[in-house]
Amino acid sequence: MAKSIQFKAGDLLFRRGDASDCVFWVRHGEIEVLRENGDNAILIGHVRGGEWLGEMGVIEGRGRSATARAVSDGAAEVLTPQEFLDRVSRDASLARGLIQRLSIRLRTIEDKIAGDLLLSTREAELAENGAPSSEALPNDNERILLTAGSDSLRSRIGPSPIQVGQLPFVVGRLPINGEAPPPRSPDLSIDDQPPFRLSRDHFMISRSQGRLLVSDLGSTLGTVVNGQPIGHDFMRDTALLNHGENRVVAGGWGSPFEFIVSIG
After folding, report:
1. What are the angstrom distances between the C-alpha of 61 and each of 14, 57, 58, 141, 164?
2. Where does the FHA domain lie (predicted)?
3. Pick from 205, 201, 252: which is nearest to 227 by CA?
4. Type and span of the H or E element at 30
């Protein structure tokens, strides 16, 4: 039987590195999720009433990857790993959500592999006949533009919109000297300096079932899409993009890597 706890603003529910020995279902209140980055604690998102906290550490059998601290008074159910798995077996919507998350992670890897193969094909064609292969636009009637949403990012990528010409489209950080390159070179590589807010492969824009979405690629500090944090420390790794303007922040709240993704 899951036990209930009350927490007060400022209480720590767990610290980064602790054993993943339970899962929280937040009844009400708000919890901030923090990740240490150098000497700083970076806010990467919030978990609120009706949301899960700490489930992926239990499923993957690894320690906490972030610190969870209450922002307000509230209450939560605390489930042991077995109680959580029993809940999953009884709750079809919860099981479906977890399966979808794992499926999206697998599809993200497949998309990256497909992107590598497509890039290799284009390079081979260029070497063979000097002519690039045709690049498919995201949609015949659709344009995807990336624009800097902060002065800091504008100084790095310029003020002009960047048109996404092919999906999937990956945004990441330029490796520093001595650092291995990411598995797939990002379509947009941006300079960053320690302590890094941007990961080498940070987020990806792709299409799934006719909808455009942003996927966090296992980044260290996560991604915030229209106010919704995604990444390993949250219940989802993806967020849908809306028609019009979308705000995508790579590297947690307050990061300088804020993008405006316009769909039209």
Report:
1. 16, 6, 5, 45, 37
2. 169-230
3. 252
4. strand 30-37
Where does the pLDDT of residue 104 fall: very low under 50, low under 70, confident under 90, or very high at 90 and above? low
End position of a domain, from candidates 63, 90, 117: 90
Q: What is the domain range of residue 170?
A: 144-263
Indicate which CATH number applies to the domain containing 53.
2.60.120.10
Residues sharing a CB contact under 8 Å with residue 36, sequence separation 6 or more, in sequence order? 16, 42, 67
Give the chain's radius of gyration (CA, Å).
20
Please state the pTM of the whole predicted model. 0.82
Calculate mean pLDDT across residues 47-60: 92
Q: Are residues 165 and 69 in the same domain?
A: no
CA 28 to chain centre: 24
- Containing 129, the helix (H) or strand (E) segment is helix 92-129
